[in-house]
Each structure stands twice: as C-alpha cells, then as structure tokens.
Amino acid sequence: MSTATLTPPARPSAAGRLLRRVWRQPLPVRIGGVLVGILVFAAVFAPLLAPYGQNDLDFNAQLQGPSLAHPMGTDDTGRDVFSRTLYGLRIDLAVVLFITYVPLPIGVLMGAIAGYFGGKVDLVISRIIDITIAFPFIVLVIAIVAIVGPGLTGIMIGVPIVAWALYARLARSEMLVLREQPFMLATTALGYTRRRAILRHAVPNLMRSSLIYSTVDLVVNLLLLAGLSYLGLGMQPPNAELGTIIAEGQANLLNAWWITTLPGLVLVVFGVGVGLIGDGLSDGELRGGGA
Amino acid sequence: MTGEPILHVEGVTKTFGMRRTLRERVGRAEAAEHRAVDDVSFTVGRGEILGLAGGSGSGKTTLARCLIRLVEPDSGAVRLGDDDVLAAKGADLRELRRRMQMVFQDPYASLNPRMTVGTALHEAGRVHRRPGSEDADRFVTELLARVHLSPTIAARRPRELSGGQRQRVAVARALAVGPEVLIADEAVSALDVSVQAQLLNLFLDLRDELGVAIVFVAHQLAVIAEVADRVAIMHQGRMVEIGDAGVVLRDPQHEYTRALLAAHPHPDPRGRAGVA
Predict the structure, then answer these.
(1) Mean pLDDT of chain A
(2) Any CB–CB contact under 8 A between B28 and chain A?
(3) Which pLDDT belongs to residue B25?
(4) Weakest-pLDDT range from B43-47, B79-83, B121-125, B261-265
(5) Which of B 175-234 lie inside 8 A of A, CB atoms?
(6) What pTM was computed for the model?
(7) Which fold has domain A39-56+72-283?
(8) Cβ of B148: how many Cβ atoms within 10 Å?
(9) Residues from chain A contacting residue B68 (CB–CB below 8 Å)
C-alpha cells in the first residue's frame, strides 16, 4: 500500500513522486490534475512562455483574431491576449491560493476550539462566525481598499477576514461529532493537554472536509477576484489579470470575441479541473497511504 | 492476589437532566432527572480484577467514565491511592488520569485513524516522559510485544488492522503511560468469541506481570466469570451486589443478579436451570 514499502532503487525527485501519486488516483482526479497542472505550469513559467510582454503595444496589429503569431488574438491596442492571459493567470493563481489557504487553517482551528470546548467559548466564537458571514462582504473590501489603496492588497486582506468563518462553521459542526469519538475521549483519558488533543488529534481529522470544500472555494475566489477587478477594486491597469482582460474586452465583444472568450475559457478550465479533483477527493479515500 | 486497596469509590452519583418537551426547553423548566449512577461505593485492590456487570442502561459505562472524569460526577469521592481524583486540576489531574487508563468498547473508533500505531504508542510515552520513551523504536516494540503483536504493526494505520489487533493496540497505548488501574469498558464486547478469549487471557497476563488493577466492565456474565476476582452488579444506577466472583455467580443474594444469571444463554440446553 504505502510508497515506503516499495523502496525504489533510486529515490525519485519530489516532482516525480507527486506525479506518480497523481497517476494512481481515479480518472476524474487525474484529468483534473492534468488540467490544473498545465495551468499552474503556464502560470509559473509565464515570462518564458509568453511570446510578448504583457503591456507591449502594437498599433499595427489591433483587434486581430487568433493566429499563429497571436494564439488568442490581440486587443484594441494590439496587446497579445495570450501573453496577457499567461501573466494574468500567474497573478490570479498566486492571489487565489493566498486568499483560500490562509483563512482555511485559521477557520479550522477556530471551529475546532469552539466545538471542542462547547459552552461559552462556543457561544462567543459562533456569534463571531455569524456576524462575519452576515457582514456585507463587498462593502468590507471597498472599505479596506479605501484604507490601503487600490490593488490586490485590499483583496488579500479583505477576503481572508471573511472567508475563515465558513471553514470555522464546517469544522465546528464536525468537531461536535468528533469529540464524542472514543479516540478523542482517549486523549483526555491518556492525560494529554487540550492543546495536544485539538492540534494533533482533532485538526488532522477535520482538515479533510475543509480541503474538499476549499476546491469549491478556489473557483469561487477566482471568480470573485475577477469580479472585484472588474469593479476596479483589484488589479490596476495596465497590468493583466483575467478579470481586467475580460472587462476591457467587453467593449469589443461583438467584433473581437476572443479578447473576452478565450481568457474566460481559461477560467472555465481551471474551474472544471479543480472541481474534478474536489469531486474525486470527496468520493473516497485518496489512494496511496495517508495524509 | 489482592493487595491493599488502590482505588476507593464512595457515594458517586451522576444525574443527567433531560428537558424532554419543547415547552420544558423553552421555559427552562426544572429538568426531569435521571440518576445514571446512584450512590455507588466500592474499592479495588492492587492487582485485583473487579468485574462490573449489569444490563443496558444500568450505569456501568457512566460509572467507569466518572472514575477518570470523562464524566464529572455530581457528588461522591474517588481516590487513587491517597490522591483525591475529583479535586485535582490541570497537571495533577492529567497525572492522575495517566495512572488510571481506559480501554474503550469500539476498537474501530478508539484509535486516531490518521496516526500510525508506532506514532500513537510513542506519543503516549513521550507526553508523560516514561522511562525508555527516548528510544522510540524500542519503546514501541516492547509495548507491542506486551500485547503479543509483531513489531511490523508499528508502521500500520488502524484501518489496516483487524478488530482484535486494534484492541490490542488500544491496550498497548494504555500501558504506554504506566497505569496502576486499567478500566476496560466493554473492551471485548465488540469482538468475536475466539478473539475475546485471547484478549481475556491478555488482561489476566497483564495483571500477573504488571500488577495492574483492572475494572472490567461487561454485560456478558460469562466474560466476567472468566477473569474477575470480585464481581459487582449494577441495576438502574445502583450497585445491588458486590462480592467474590465465585460466591456472587453461584449464590446470588439479590433478585436482579438471579434474573441476570437466569437470562444468560447457556451453551448446553440441559444446564439451562444452572449457572453460567
């Protein structure tokens, strides 16, 4: 079962092990992994892969359709949409990973604490969760952007302030069940500290459902980021971000469909890929030993 | 084989309040009381095995949990040696819990599914700085040998083990912290009969080799008859009878004990009138 028992002659690189592990998963997870893998690869190596700079103007090639020279066409100032998409994806993925996986552990921990202790602790944390979820989110982000100035910083502060609450609610309800499990009672019986019981025994068992939910959250956050940038709260021009590319292309939607559609398609591919992985994860145990 | 008393239990009572109807809940009415454990007293000697029997809902498990305060008793006293368990707090309470370990009924739920056997066993020893726990491999191997398991088990996770193996691991984890009293709460009830017999022998061995006292909770009198030096019978939260195993099981004084013995299925139809 576990990779340790195989003891391969030459220890494969970390990337090689990851690839092997992905390859043993069910088909949908594999497909999702390949789709997301390609996008992540493209994002990481954007400066090498992009045929043009993201802000290179070319007034001899405005609004050209997809061709060999411009795989995704050009926009109304002759910028290469493919290059802009690659750079945009790079920023988007980095920000989306941040605003999804920074609040996750915070939320799980808060939920675990609320569920483990119950009583007044639970009451206080649960009310904070309720208030956070009820708070009008866009208003909060606008307020933060007003303070720190326009750009991605506002989003990277504003989203985690709110997003932890959903994970906390999820983890809390699971903790209520988990704390009655004999192995959690055993942590008390064994004379472990509550800190150890929560961090070492409860949290690893609560992470799974939050990680599955996070695959939905990733897509939602990517769309949110695109949406906020569309509203002018996110990435500032001229630098590319998928939302701003799509927003700028809107004016030419009828005569230059590629500016909005092709970057939009990239969003879709990311959503489908992450969704497939999430589905596969929730269907059953990941194959190949623990964690 | 029975030394001086190590565990004293005096007048332990636990009441669960239940607001049954919506009206009671909304009105915060005085809750209907249910006495799960009602004024129970007994002692357990060093190296003694006390069998705790009773029907479903008789309060056996609640009583067992009161002893290490997984459930807080409302009143009464529990002393381990000279230490007051119910008054202890913080590090003192954790130390008292270390000295009284528990083995749970469901071996499928009593081990953390995300931890390998070796990690779980070593953690228990390390937390309490048990002698020998500095050398993880040796510590784990010795514990596994105590419960007659192969050292190769250490790398496995609970889901790769059988029920009997898991329960042995649970026992090993309890032993890892060096307890003086072991509370086995229906520890063999979920296992099939042949595995049950092996575990019962294991408990007897542990008593003989380590001198731990064992409070052995079970609903099957046959199981209790197998291991217990003394037997206590619980009925509706009260301890109705306590005494030497041979005496109680052969010549029960309380009518509930007689009913319990009569209700017990006997493998030989001709012996039905007799005693298990």
Answers:
(1) 82
(2) no
(3) 67
(4) B261-265
(5) 177
(6) 0.81
(7) MetI-like fold (1.10.3720)
(8) 12
(9) 188-189
Res A285: pLDDT? 53
Structural domain of B131: 5-271
Tokens standing for residue A123: 């009451």
pLDDT at residue A10 greater than cutoff 60 = no
Cα–Cα distance, A42 to A49 (Å, whole number): 7
In one letter, which amino acid is A21? R
Residue B259 sits in a domain whose CATH number is 3.40.50.300
Q: Which of A2, A188, A192 sits opposite B127 (nearest CB)?
A: A192
Contact B104 A200 (CB under 8 A): no
pLDDT > 80? residue B53: yes
What ipTM was predicted for this assembly? 0.85
Query: Would you say residue B197 lies in a domain?
Result: yes
Q: Look at chain B and report how many structural domains it folds into.
A: 1
In 3D space, the residue among B254, B208, B207, B267 whose CA is nearest the CA of residue B53 turns out to be B254
Alpha helices in A102-250 (DSSP H): 103-117, 119-134, 137-148, 152-178, 182-189, 194-196, 203-230, 242-249
| DSSP letter assigned to residue A74 | B
Inform me whether the C-beta atom of residue A282 falls under 8 Å from chain B C-beta atoms.
no
Question: How many contacts (CB atoms, under 8 Å) link A and B?
Answer: 62
User: Rounded to a whole number, what is the distance in Å from the CA of A223 to chain B's nearest CA?
Assistant: 34
pLDDT at A103: 94
Task: Note whether B94 contacts A193, CB cutoff 8 Å.
Answer: yes
**What confidence tens digit (pLDDT) does each residue in A213-243 have?**
898 888 888 888 878 877 777 777 667 787 7
